[in-house]
Specification:
The chain is an alpha/beta fold. The protein contains 11 helices and 9 strands. It has 2 domains: about 210 residues, Spore Coat Polysaccharide Biosynthesis Protein SpsA, Chain A, CATH 3.90.550.10; about 60 residues. It is globular, with a radius of gyration of 18 Å. It is an enzyme of class 2 (transferase). GO terms for molecular function: glycosyltransferase activity. It comes from Providencia heimbachae ATCC 35613. InterPro entries: Glyco_trans_2-like, Glycosyltransf_2, Nucleotide-diphossugar_trans.
C-alpha cells in the first residue's frame, strides 16, 4: 500500500469542536489510516485549540507532527511550509472543519495504485450546514482528465479538501502561491498547464461545512480582483483564450456584487 501524509492547516478563528471531528474522521474511523499527519499552526491559536492539538499529538506521537508558525501567513504559505515536513510523496489535503468519509483514503489509494500516471486526484463533496445536521447538496466535479480540461476554463475542477497529490510535482510547478481565496485553483491550473494527468472520483468522500460565512467570503471587490488575477493566469498558461477568459471573468464577477441571500440561492442552484 502507498504510504501517505495528510496535510492540514489551522488558525485562531477555527472551532476546536470541528477540528476534533476532523481528527476523528482521519485517525479513528478510516478503513486505511495515514502514515503521517502534518498540522500547521498558522500563527497563535486559542487555548482551546492548543489543548485539543496537544491531546491528539500525545495520542498519536508517531503519526502527528505539529509545526508552529510564529505569525499568521495565510493558507497558501502555511501549506507550502507544511510540504517541507511531509515525509511521503503522496500528500492528502484535508480542512480542519470538514469530515472525511470512512473509505476516503482507501478509495483514493486504490485509484492511484491502478492509475500511476495520475498526479492529482480529488472527489465530489456533500455540503452541510455548520452542525452537519442538514445536507445542502453536492458539489460534483468532472472525473476524467479530458472533462477536467474542458471544465477548468469555467470553474474550479477540484474540491480542495478532497485532493491527493504528488508532492514532487506540486513543488516542481511552484507549489502554492499567494492568490487570495484561490490558491488551490491557481495551483491546479499550473499542474494542468504543465501537462500532467489529473482526475476526480465520482464518490462524495468529504462532508463539508458551508453557510453564509462561506458565501460572504466569495463576494465583493476583493474577490473580483482575485477573479481577474485568475483570468490572467489562464491566458498566461494557455488554458483559455483571452476572449473566453475575460468573458468568463465578467460572468463570474457579476454575482459577486449581489446580496448574500441571492448569491446563496445561486450556489444552491449550482449544487443541484
Amino acid at each position: 500500500m502507498i504510504k501517505f501524509t495528510v496535510l492540514l492547516s489551522v488558525y485562531k478563528n477555527e472551532s476546536a469542536e470541528y477540528l476534533n471531528d476532523a481528527f476523528n474522521s482521519i485517525l479513528i474511523y478510516q478503513t486505511v489510516l495515514p502514515n503521517e499527519v502534518i498540522l500547521i499552526k498558522d500563527g497563535r491559536l486559542s487555548s482551546e485549540l492548543d489543548d485539543l492539538i496537544y491531546h491528539w499529538s500525545k495520542q498519536y506521537p508517531k503519526i502527528m507532527k505539529v509545526i508552529e508558525l510564529k505569525e499568521n501567513v495565510g493558507l497558501g504559505k502555511a501549506l507550502n511550509e507544511g510540504l517541507k515536513y511531509c515525509s511521503y510523496n503522496w500528500v492528502f489535503r484535508m480542512d480542519t472543519d470538514d469530515y472525511c468519509m470512512p473509505d476516503r483514503f482507501e478509495k483514493q489509494l486504490l485509484y492511484i495504485h491502478f492509475n500511476p500516471n495520475i498526479v492529482l486526484l480529488g472527489s465530489c463533496i456533500e455540503e452541510f450546514d455548520s452542525t452537519m445536521s442538514r445536507s445542502l447538496g453536492y458539489r460534483n466535479v468532472p472525473c476524467s482528465h479530458n472533462d477536467i480540461l474542458k471544465y477548468v476554463n469555467q470553474r474550479n475542477p477540484f474540491n480542495h479538501m478532497t485532493v491527493a497529490f504528488r508532492k514532487d510535482i506540486i513543488e516542481l510547478v511552484g507549489g502554492y502561491q499567494h492568490h487570495l481565496y484561490m490558491e488551490d485553483y491557481n495551483l491546479w491550473i499550473r499542474v494542468i498547464a504543465a501537462g500532467y494527468k489529473v482526475a476526480n472520483l465520482q464518490d462524495s468522500l468529504v462532508k463539508v461545512r458551508c453557510g453564509d460565512s462561506m458565501v460572504k467570503r466569495r463576494k465583493g471587490i476583493t474577490y473580483i480582483k482575485s477573479e481577474f488575477q485568475l483570468a490572467k493566469l489562464k491566458i498566461e498558461k494557455k488554458i483559455d483564450t483571452p476572449l473566453n477568459s475575460y468573458l468568463n471573468f465578467t460572468l463570474r464577477s457579476i454575482p459577486r456584487l449581489l446580496p448574500t441571500s441571492i448569491l446563496s440561492k445561486i450556489y444552491k442552484k449550482l449544487r443541484k
